[in-house]
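Researcher: Next entry in the queue.
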Amino acid sequence: MTTSNSTAPSPPAGPVTPTARRYGKAQRSRRTLATIALLPFLAFLVLFAAYPLVELVRLSFNDTTVVGGQFVSAFNGLANYAEALSDPANLGSLGITVIFIVLTVGGTLALGTLLALLVDRSVWMLGIARNVLIWPAVITPVVVSVMWLLLLSPTVGGVNKVLLKLGLPTQAWLDSKIGAFLSVVVVDIWHWTPVVFLFVYTALRGLGQEVLEAARTDGATEMQMTTKIILPMLLPALAVVAAVRLVSSIKAFDEMYLLTRGGPDGATNLVSLQIRTLFFDRLDFGPAAALSVSTVLAVALMVGIAILGRRIRRGGTR
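Model: Structure for this entry, 318 residues:
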């Protein structure tokens, strides 16, 4: 009795046709072109991102001084990190930065989302959004600083003139600690709310209209639709724009430096301004690098936690 194999032998491979040969050649050409197209980006990434970061990390582990116009470095381990994270001025700037981030990120998210919801529900506000709401985001930080310096000037400022018209006392906005800090927070929110508005409005226009129409058919009010349906559906977009705003708030420098230079008495001395002071005013290169690396690691940790939370949330909703 003979047994037959259950699987039939595969037929011998036929000769490669000219069409298949041309197709394979075209595929290889596309892969080669794709690799060549990536080379400028990779070179840019290495030259302007990877190399400076490596040098910054190296500098943070060395005691670096300038001798005869040359940098002289000696390895000192974690001494720079211990000095940077124990300096009261550095810790104060970190605390101010945390408060600044909470207020500006929360303020821009709330205001940008509210504007997006209003524009989405109003036809006439769309024209205002296109012509008015967007333009603060395209103004350079230097122009923003000069404009707000004029507005907040205690003598010729437009804000104090409005207060005088209303019979209210004028304020020296940038000369008091609370006034200066609130001023830079308002300037940052004013400058970056249009970015949040664009993100949220774009995501809002991409929501499934079938779900919204079904909710309206079931008798849901506008408030119920906003809180129970629209905002939960916007959470992924809000998470992305929150991460963008987090990074931009930590990097905030131009407006604060030009408006207050970190004063008065360090009330607006964000970590970016403190790093600049350590590098260029005190020439404390090691502690400045250590504070910079610590800030980068903190940002990476917060963004990583946000991404992980988003993935966990996605996995839980499946």
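Model: The longest helix spans residues 18-60.
Researcher: Noted, moving on.
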